[in-house]
């Protein structure tokens, strides 16, 4: 849909002006709020979920739970959620409009101009990101007193907005996690986030915490300083291998302008073991702020504003002209249309009730119930597990017990297994009395190659942890494997007899 083709139209209480982003899950529009008596001058962003997702009951439940979390977040460095609801069989959320671009777009434009953000400005922007996320991580519901334990899980330059005045905003809280568990969505999500995964994401039985977001913030800072992503490759497998190994080169060797003190701060946030990272994003922010004003004592946030307005003067002028053109649109017909719709509803005895008003009517007990449900969702997030499973499948491939050689497993994983086997053979056995094991029924012998393929189905990067599917699932898998083996043996016997 081109810009010249878009025509202003009413959607619920809003006048859609143009579309900003067209995605597989939703479309984001710029809009003005309408009322029965006037048109508000405030510009907002509306994220409209496509009907195919909006009508999915599981998706809708996730969307409502997650959006309620975002609805309560009020911080200068977080894009606020004003309203949400359902219109024309489509879920929507009304968000704060940020008159600027995301950091990915800013970075691409600066590359074309053959320049980048100065070190002090990159540090300042990262400091603002830390403040917004630290607030979210520690957010407590005022009515119930319960902590939400929020983890963004989708921090990247695409989800960091900055307006032309230099104000940094973290976006897509909650909505980023509210996606249906379809194969298509999973594949798209992985492709979009894969370069910003933390190493612990590839480990089984690891419960993610706020330090996951810290690693992603470190990756954003790296990108601002270096002008490129840290984890890149020709394909997803190469990127996943880099994340798993997490061998971070020294930034000072790639960019001599980076002070050694800043390098130390950055590498700490990108530690492979999360225990070696900062305790929380407040500590990360304090380290950045101390470095900033120690090395750049005269820095002021207005410096960033001046830089942006100088570097992007043409883009700012073009955007201002477009906004003024929106102001010339006659909103009176849309207001009349809204009045007629509200009157028709009133005559039919239908009282308009938005989801946000339903939310404000919730009692403290219902709030408490919601918070507890959200905490459970955070710990056992279905989408999180689905994406992680998909990533593991990409890393390990899928084995087949009917093949002698599993060509879908990467050479990298095969080498890891061979190294583990060689190491285990070299380790001397510890002296001591042998433990008497209880007698067990003899198990049918299985070919060694077959055993290796069966073991290969345990897709775990460390190859030492148990399959997270649980004992019951493991038993079922073993029964299936033995059944297939039995069938193969029977068919072999029949074949031999037939040939004889």
Describe the overall structure.
With 500 residues, the protein is of the alpha+beta class. It folds into 3 domains: 1-97 and 331-352, 2-Layer Sandwich (Phosphorylase Kinase, domain 1); 101-329 and 362-396, Transferase(Phosphotransferase), domain 1; 397-421 and 446-500, no CATH class. It has helices spanning 51-54, 57-72, 103-112, 119-137, 183-193, 211-226, 236-245, 251-254, 260-269, 281-295, 301-311, 313-327, 332-347, 355-360, 364-379, 382-396, 411-426, 448-456, 471-499; strands at residues 9-11, 14-22, 26-34, 39-49, 81-87, 90-96, 100-102, 160-163, 168-170. It has a 6-stranded antiparallel beta sheet with strand order 1-2-3-4-6-5. The chain has a 3-stranded antiparallel beta sheet with strand order 7-8-9. The chain is globular. It starts with 8 loop residues before the first strand and ends with a helix.
Structural class, by secondary structure, is alpha+beta
* Total domain units: 3
Number of helices: 19
The number of E-state strands comes to: 9
CATH class value of the largest domain: Mainly Alpha
Helical fraction equals 40-55%
The value of Rg in angstroms is 28 Å
Strand content: 5-15%
Strands of the widest sheet, in order across it, are 1-2-3-4-6-5
Shape: globular
CATH superfamily heading of the largest domain: Transferase(Phosphotransferase) domain 1
User: Largest sheet at a glance?
Assistant: 6 strands, antiparallel
Residue-averaged pLDDT: 77
Task: Indicate the low-confidence ranges by residue numbers.
Answer: 175-192, 351-363, 394-413, 429-469
CATH A-level architecture of the largest domain:
Orthogonal Bundle
**From N to C, what is the helix and strand string?**
EEEEHHEEEHHEEHHHHHHHHHHHHHHH
Query: Distance between termini?
Result: 70 Å
């Amino acid at each position: 849909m081109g810009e010249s083709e878009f025509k202003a139209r009413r959607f619920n209480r809003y006048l859609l002006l143009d579309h900003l982003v067209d995605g597989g899950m939703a479309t984001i529009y710029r809009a003005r709020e309408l009322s029965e008596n006037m048109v508000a001058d405030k510009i907002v962003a509306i994220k409209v979920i496509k009907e195919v997702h909006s009508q999915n009951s599981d998706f809708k439940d996730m969307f409502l739970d997650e959006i309620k979390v975002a609805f309560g977040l009020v911080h200068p460095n977080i894009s606020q959620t004003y309203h949400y609801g359902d219109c024309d069989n489509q879920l929507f959320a009304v968000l704060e409009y940020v008159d600027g671009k995301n950091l990915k777009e800013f970075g691409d434009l600066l590359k074309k101009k053959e320049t980048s953000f100065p070190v002090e400005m990159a540090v300042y922007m990262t400091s603002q990101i830390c403040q917004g996320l630290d607030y979210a991580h520690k957010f407590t519901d005022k009515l119930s007193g319960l902590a939400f334990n929020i983890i963004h899980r989708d921090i990247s330059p695409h989800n960091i907005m900055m307006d032309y005045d230099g104000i940094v905003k973290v976006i897509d809280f909650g909505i980023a996690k509210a996606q249906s568990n379809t194969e298509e969505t999973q594949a798209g999500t992985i492709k979009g986030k894969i370069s910003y995964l933390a190493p612990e994401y590839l480990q089984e039985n690891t419960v993610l915490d706020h330090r996951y977001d810290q690693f992603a913030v470190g990756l954003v800072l790296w990108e601002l300083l270096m002008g490129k992503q840290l984890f890149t490759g020709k394909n997803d497998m190469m990127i996943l291998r880099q994340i798993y190994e997490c061998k971070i080169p020294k930034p000072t060797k790639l960019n001599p302008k980076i002070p050694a003190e800043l390098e130390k701060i950055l590498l700490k946030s990108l530690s492979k073991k999360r225990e070696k990272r900062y305790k929380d994003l407040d500590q990360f922010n304090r380290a950045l702020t101390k470095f900033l004003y120690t090395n750049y004592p005269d820095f002021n946030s207005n410096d960033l504003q001046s830089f942006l307005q100088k570097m992007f003067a043409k883009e700012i002028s073009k955007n201002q002209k477009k906004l003024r053109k929106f102001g010339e649109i006659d909103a009176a017909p849309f207001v009349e249309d809204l009045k007629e719709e509200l009157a028709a509803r009133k005559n039919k005895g239908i009282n308009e009730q938005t989801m946000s008003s339903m939310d404000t009517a919730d009692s403290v007990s219902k709030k408490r119930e919601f918070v507890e449900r959200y905490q459970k969702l955070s710990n056992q997030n279905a989408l999180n597990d689905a994406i992680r499973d998909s990533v593991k499948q990409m890393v390990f491939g899928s084995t087949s017990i009917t093949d002698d050689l599993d060509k879908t497993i990467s050479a990298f994983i095969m080498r890891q297994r061979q190294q583990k086997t060689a190491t285990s053979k070299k380790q001397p056995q510890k002296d001591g009395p042998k433990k008497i094991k209880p007698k067990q029924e003899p198990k049918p012998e299985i070919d060694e190659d077959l055993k290796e393929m069966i073991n290969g189905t345990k897709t775990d990067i460390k190859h030492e942890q148990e399959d997270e599917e649980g004992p019951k699932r493991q038993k079922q898998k073993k029964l299936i494997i033995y059944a297939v083996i039995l069938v193969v043996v029977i068919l072999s016997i029949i074949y031999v007899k037939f040939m004889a």
